[in-house]
C-alpha cells in the first residue's frame, strides 16, 4: 500500500489536502474534483509520481509518503526486540494510560520495557500509517511483546485479566 497526501493551494491562498491510500499498480480517483490520470507503483519502485493532475485553478505540491512509511518501519524495527516489551504511545491518551498501568503491575527486568512517546514527532503520522500496515490499527497504544503486537490498551487489560499477559511476559524472559 502507498500513502499520499495531496496539498493544494489556489490563487486566493485557500488550502486543502487530501490523504489517499492505494494498492500497488492501481489508478486513483479521488471524489473531490482531483483526478490524477494514472498513478503507477510497482513493488520494485516505491516512489509514486502522478503522470498528470487535472485541478482547475490549483497548483499541486505532491508528497509521497511511501518513503516516510519505510523510514517509520525501520525506526519501529530498531525498537523491537524478542525479549522486550515496547509501547508506542501518546501520554494524554486514556488507552495508553491503561496499558502503562497494567504493565506497571509486573516487575520487569531492567531494559525490558520501553515507552516511546510519538507525540509531536515529525514522523508521527508515518509511524501510525506503518502501525496500520503492520497491525491493522493506526491508533495508540501499539503494544509489542517481543516482536508481536498484542494490540492496544483494552487488549493488554484483557490479557492481564485472563492471565495470558503474565505468561507472555515470562515466555520472552522479561519478568524478574
From TrEMBL:
SUPFAM superfamilies: Thioredoxin-like. GO terms for cellular component: mitochondrion. It comes from Esox lucius. Keywords: Disulfide bond, Electron transport, Redox-active center, Transport. Residues 85-150 form the Glutaredoxin domain. PANTHER family: GLUTAREDOXIN-1. The keyword Iron does not apply. This is Glutaredoxin-1. Pfam families: Glutaredoxin. Belongs to the glutaredoxin family. Has a glutathione-disulfide oxidoreductase activity in the presence of NADPH and glutathione reductase. Reduces low molecular weight disulfides and proteins. The keyword Disulfide bond applies. GO terms for molecular function: glutathione disulfide oxidoreductase activity. It comes from the Eukaryota.
Amino acid at each position: 500500500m502507498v500513502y499520499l497526501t495531496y496539498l493544494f493551494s489556489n490563487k486566493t491562498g485557500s488550502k486543502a489536502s487530501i490523504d489517499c491510500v492505494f494498492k500497488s499498480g492501481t489508478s486513483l480517483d479521488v471524489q473531490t474534483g482531483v483526478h490524477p490520470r494514472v498513478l503507477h507503483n510497482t513493488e520494485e519502485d516505491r516512489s509514486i509520481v502522478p503522470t498528470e493532475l487535472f485541478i482547475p485553478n490549483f497548483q499541486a505540491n505532491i508528497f509521497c509518503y511511501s518513503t516516510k512509511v519505510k523510514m517509520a518501519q525501520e525506526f519501529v524495527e530498531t525498537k523491537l526486540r524478542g525479549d522486550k516489551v515496547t509501547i508506542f504511545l501518546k501520554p494524554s491518551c486514556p488507552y495508553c494510560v491503561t496499558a502503562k498501568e497494567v504493565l506497571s503491575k509486573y516487575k520487569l527486568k531492567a531494559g525490558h520495557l520501553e515507552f516511546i512517546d510519538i507525540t509531536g514527532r515529525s514522523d508521527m503520522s508515518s509511524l501510525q500509517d506503518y502501525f496500520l500496515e503492520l497491525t491493522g490499527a493506526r491508533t495508540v497504544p501499539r503494544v509489542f511483546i517481543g516482536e508481536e503486537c498484542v494490540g492496544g490498551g483494552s487488549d493488554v487489560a484483557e490479557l492481564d485479566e485472563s492471565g495470558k499477559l503474565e505468561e507472555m511476559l515470562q515466555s520472552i524472559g522479561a519478568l524478574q
